[in-house]
Give the backbone structure.
Amino acid sequence: MIAHSTAKSVSGLHKFVAADLHTLRSRAIRVRESLSSCRLCERICNVDRLADAPAPCGLGAETHVFKRHISFAEEPEFLPSYMLYFAGCNFRCAFCVQAPNCFDPSRGPQANVRALARELQELVDRGAKTINLLGGEPSLHLHTILEIAATHSELYKDVRTIEALPILLNSNFYMTPQVIDDLEGVAKYYLADFKFGSDACAKGIAGGHITRYVSVVTRNLTHAWAQCQRTGARLLVRHLVMPGHVECCTKPVRAWMADNLSEVELHLMDSYVPAYRAARTNAKGLGELHRLLTAKEILAAHAPTESSYVPVTVQGGPQRVKPARGER
Amino acid sequence: MKQDMCSQLKSTSIARVPQDDLGRELTVVIRIAADGRVYFHDIPIDMLLVAQAIAPNDAQLALRVQAAAAYRSITQ
C-alpha cells in the first residue's frame, strides 16, 4: 500500500493526445517484427523472440497474464485501478512481492488481444480510472500493449464518445528509449519505479546482469517527462525505501529528482516487506533486506536533505556529479 | 458518513469467498509485525474497512475507502 508522498504538482497539463488507429497498427506491426532481434530493454540481447529462442528474460513473443484484479492500493487518484499482471521480467529483485510467479513467462493464460480490449473497456465502463499494466515487466510486452490499444480503437471507433484506454505503464523503466517513443499517445500515465540509487545496489539486488542502472533509468525518466509535456500524459515516480538503503538509494534518488525532475511527483513508499529471497532466513548477500524498515529509517528517508550526490557509473567508475540541493 | 460507507461496502461472507469482486481468485497477504505495523498485500475492496478500523486516521486510506464506495455504487 502506498504510504507517504513528497508530491509536487503536475497540474495544468493539457488533454491527453491519443495516437490514431493507423499509427497504433503500424507501430504494433513494427514492434512485433522487431522481436526477431529484441531491443526492448537495455540489456539489448538481440534474441529472436519470434523463434522462441531463449531470451535472458525467458520471454518469447507470447504474452501471458498471471493475475488481474481491481485495486484500491495504488495512488488514490488512480483508483479504482484495474491491474493486469504480465508474466516475465528482466529483473530478479530479491524482495519482489510477485516472485516467483512474475518471473515465469508462461504463468497464467495466454493473452487474447481482442478479448482483453473488450475486457478493459468493460472495466472502464464499470468505473476503473486506470488500466494498470504491470508484471513482471510490462514494457517487454510492448507489442501486445500496442495490439490491445489498436484493437480497442478498432472495436470502439464508431462510438463517438469513446476515449483511449487510460493505460498506466507500471514499469521498472529499464527499457530502451524507443519503447517510450512507441508508447506516445498510448500510455496516459507512466508510473516509474526508481528503485536504486547506485549501480552496485541494482546489481546486488535486481541481478548481476543489470548494468548502468542509474544512467539508464534517469535517461528514461527525462525522456518520458519530455513526452508527457508534449502529449499531456502524466509521469509519477515511485521509490520503495529499503532497509539499509536509505543513504545509498533513497537519498540519491531524491537528490536526482529534486535536481532534474523537480516538477514530477516522487512517491516515497515505506511499506517494504521482505518477500521472495529476502524473506529467507538464510538469504546471503542481501544485507538487511530480510527485515522491515525501522522508524528511524522511515524518518531519515522523508527528512529534508542538505546535500547529496548521485553516483553514476561512467566507464567503470563511480563519479561524483553536480551537488543536489535536495528538497527545495 | 463512515456508517454509510460501511453499509455500501458490506460483504456477507468475506471469509468464504476467496475472490475479488469480479469473481477471480485473489490471494490476500496480511502481515502483522511485532511492533504492531500491519501490511496488506492485494487488499480486496471488502477488507478496506478492516484496514480503516486499524488506522482510522489514515487520510490516504480514507481516500481509498471513498473510491471503493464510489466503485461499488456503480457496480451494484
User: Anything to note?
Assistant: The radius of gyration of chain B is 13 Å. The beta strands of chain B are 29-32, 38-41. Chain B has one domain: 2-75. Residues 2-75 of chain B form one domain.
